Amino acid sequence: MTPSRDELRQQLRTARRQLSHDQQKHAAIALASHLPDHSLLQHASQVALYMAADGEIDPHILAEVLFARGKQIALPVMHPFNDHQLLFQRYEPGQPLLPNRYGIPEPQLAKPELIPLQELDVVLMPLVGFDDNGNRLGMGGGFYDRTLGGVEADLRPTLIGLAHSCQRVEKLYAAHWDVPLNGIATEQGLHWVER
Ligand SMILES: Nc1ncnc2c1ncn2[C@@H]1O[C@H](COP(=O)(O)OP(=O)(O)OP(=O)(O)O)[C@@H](O)[C@H]1O
Ligand SMILES: [Mg+2]
Prior knowledge:
There is one protein chain. This protein is an alpha/beta fold. It contains five helices and eleven strands, in the order H-H-H-E-H-E-E-E-E-E-E-E-H-E-E-E. Helix 2 packs parallel to helix 4 (about 60-70). The longest helix is centred in the first third of the chain and has 14 residues, at about 20-35. It binds adenosine-5'-triphosphate and magnesium ion. The site of magnesium ion has 4 residues, from loops. Keywords: ATP-binding, Magnesium, Metal-binding, Nucleotide-binding.
C-alpha cells in the first residue's frame, strides 16, 4: 500500500536524522564543492538558502563559498502577518540570528534588508522527500508552496531542492498547490528536471 504524505514524511525524516555526524559533514562539504561551480550558480547574483534543522543537508559551507564569490545570500524569515508565508532577507555568513517559533535561526526582520522574491535568481530550499520529476514533499506547513505560489511561474527564481540522496523516492504525488522544483542538488550532484 502507498504510504500517505504524513507516513512518508515520518519515514524520510527518520532516515535523514539517522545520518551520522560524519555523513552529514561529508554531505555538506560535497554540496559546497560541486554546486558553486555549476553554471546556474556562477550566473546567479542573489541566492536564497536556509539554516539546516532536523537532519537536512547543511548549506552553511555552501553559503560561505557563495558569499566569498561575491553572491548576495538571503535567508527565509517568517512573515510577521501573513500566516505560513516567507520573506527573504539579506544575510552575511556569521551574522547573528534568532530562533523563530520553530526554533530555526533567522535574521531579525529588517524591512530594508528584504529582497523581493522576483529579484532572487535561485532559491535553494530544504525538503523531506523528492522524486526525479521535481515533486517536493516539505515539512507540511505549506510555507514554500504559499510563498512561491504567490508569484507567476515564469517570474519565479530557479527552484532547487537540496537533499541527501536517501531522501529520493520513486514517485511523489503532487497536490494542486505544490510548487514543483526545477532541479535537485544532493551530495552527489545536481539533477535537472526535464519539463
Ligand atoms: N498556495 C496555497 N494556498 C493555500 N494553502 C496552501 C497553499 N499551499 C499549501 N497550502 C496548504 O498548506 C498545507 C501543507 O502543504 P504541503 O503538505 O504541500 O506542505 P509542504 O510542501 O510539505 O511544506 P513546505 O512548503 O512548508 O515545505 C496544505 O494542507 C495546504 O492546504
Ligand atoms: Mg507542498
